[in-house]
């Protein structure tokens, strides 16, 4: 899995399309100076960099070392002190109750064992702490997008299950949940073809597939979903999840 996400140029993908997730999740989880924060499946630091800017004590994990290396360089360039740890979201190498806030923005949803991920997020969060996630919904455009990959990658649970309210209530049973549906538009120059090319150049799972049929499938998806005129504009829905843990 880590080799897939090392393909393409994820930092370009994230900064051009989903970089707004970072400050949004930092604000919604109430991260502030002195808090111990863990960002899981951090990529190149979308949330972690913004959390560190508040003065929080931040640890960022990802399964892909190439992403961590980019994040580390970004942090150094900004004068931020972040601990970068290679780790699987399904088996985090941290003590129980170690963090005040644990976050993941469209990251941990891609790990295959959803139960293990939820268990680990809860385990490392202190009592009365907060887990904050941004998860694509099964009703939104992401569900159609991810079905394009099905013929080319091993089968597993859909990452969009994390955007189902009944599903996450089951995963985080016993927590007080604050769930809000939002959407955003991915804008890429060049219309549907530009969108398809951009994803194949930057998004690891797309860059890793060399079958020409996949390129045609991706273009067909972009043509169906495009709301723009000259540039491609595709609207995606997500669930912003806050899980507040009960007292000990």
From TrEMBL:
<dbReference type="InterPro" id="IPR029063">
    <property type="entry name" value="SAM-dependent_MTases_sf"/>
</dbReference>
<keyword id="KW-0808">Transferase</keyword>
<dbReference type="GO" id="GO:0032259">
    <property type="term" value="P:methylation"/>
</dbReference>
<feature type="domain" description="Methyltransferase">
    <location>
        <begin position="37"/>
        <end position="129"/>
    </location>
</feature>
<dbReference type="GO" id="GO:0008168">
    <property type="term" value="F:methyltransferase activity"/>
</dbReference>
<dbReference type="InterPro" id="IPR041698">
    <property type="entry name" value="Methyltransf_25"/>
</dbReference>
<dbReference type="Pfam" id="PF13649">
    <property type="entry name" value="Methyltransf_25"/>
</dbReference>
<protein>
    <submittedName>
        <fullName>Methyltransferase domain-containing protein</fullName>
    </submittedName>
</protein>
<keyword id="KW-0489">Methyltransferase</keyword>
């Amino acid at each position: 899995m880590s080799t897939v996400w090392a393909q393409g140029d994820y930092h370009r993908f994230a900064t051009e399309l989903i970089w707004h997730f970072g400050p949004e999740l930092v604000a919604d989880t109430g991260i502030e100076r002195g808090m111990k924060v863990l960002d899981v499946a951090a990529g190149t630091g979308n949330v972690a960099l913004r959390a560190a800017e508040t003065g929080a004590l931040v640890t960022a994990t990802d399964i892909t070392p190439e992403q961590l290396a980019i994040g580390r360089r970004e942090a150094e360039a900004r004068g931020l002190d972040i601990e970068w740890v290679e780790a699987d979201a399904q088996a985090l190498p941290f003590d129980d109750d170690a963090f005040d806030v644990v976050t993941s923005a469209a990251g941990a949803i891609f790990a295959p064992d959803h139960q293990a991920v939820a268990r680990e997020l809860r385990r490392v969060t202190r009592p009365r702490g907060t887990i904050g996630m941004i998860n694509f919904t099964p009703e939104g455009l992401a569900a159609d997008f991810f079905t394009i990959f099905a013929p080319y990658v091993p089968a597993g649970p859909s990452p969009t299950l994390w955007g189902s309210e009944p599903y996450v209530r089951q995963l985080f049973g016993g927590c007080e949940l604050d769930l809000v549906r939002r959407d955003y538009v991915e804008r890429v120059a060049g219309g549907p073809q530009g969108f398809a090319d951009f994803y194949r150049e930057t998004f690891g799972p797309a860059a890793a597939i060399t079958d020409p049929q996949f390129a045609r499938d991706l273009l067909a998806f972009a043509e169906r979903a495009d709301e723009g005129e000259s540039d491609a504009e595709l609207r995606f829905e997500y669930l912003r999840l806050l899980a507040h843990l009960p007292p000990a």
